[in-house]
Amino acid sequence: FHIGEREEKCIIEDIPSDTLVVGNYKVQRWDIHKHDFLESAPGLGMFVTVTSPSGEVLLSKLYGPQGTFSFTSYLSGEHIICFQSNSTRFAVIAGSKLRIHLDIRVGEHFLDESAIQTKDKVNEVNVRLEHLIEQIHHVTKEQDYEREREEKFRKTSEETNSNILWWAIVQTLILISVGIWQIKSLRDFFISKKLV
């Protein structure tokens, strides 16, 4: 994505609780002379801020023009990940565009291939089995989180439907009351004018 040099850009990630999140990014600055983005942006860094659903700041750190950040979610829900360059230029001068390449991995644990190659076949199978078990735990955790969200959504939908029903009943009662009052008022008017 592209941002201005002094602009802040935030991304919302829906993450289950107790989940490791790893993000890799790379910043490129627009070169006016070449009319292209430079491969690297020396001297330019990024402030990375991560906020939990409760508003608690989980991570707030300055990184270089490319780097890796990681955090563990303690609550399930929408986590806000914000990026802002550390540019010290004035807002008038800092009109340069930045391109940010971002890769966010949620709950993934990668195998260390070099460690596997040095061990014998039994240990390799053991390490791969542990990795699979870890992935199964992560998938189970994701499913539990989705069930929790679905239950919350269903409860909200049922409450909304109940409120709509009561609102329709109240509207009907008001309409009937106004109709009865109009009929009574017209009847009294015609009787007082001796038209009936």
UniProtKB/TrEMBL annotation:
Signal peptide limits: none
Membrane topology type: Single-pass type I membrane protein
Segments crossing the lipid bilayer: 164-183
PROSITE patterns per the UniProt record, alphabetical: GOLD
Coiled coil feature spans: none
PANTHER family xref list: TRANSMEMBRANE EMP24 DOMAIN-CONTAINING PROTEIN
Listed name of the protein: TMD11 protein
Source organism of this protein record: Struthidea cinerea
Taxonomic path: Eukaryota, Metazoa, Chordata, Craniata, Vertebrata
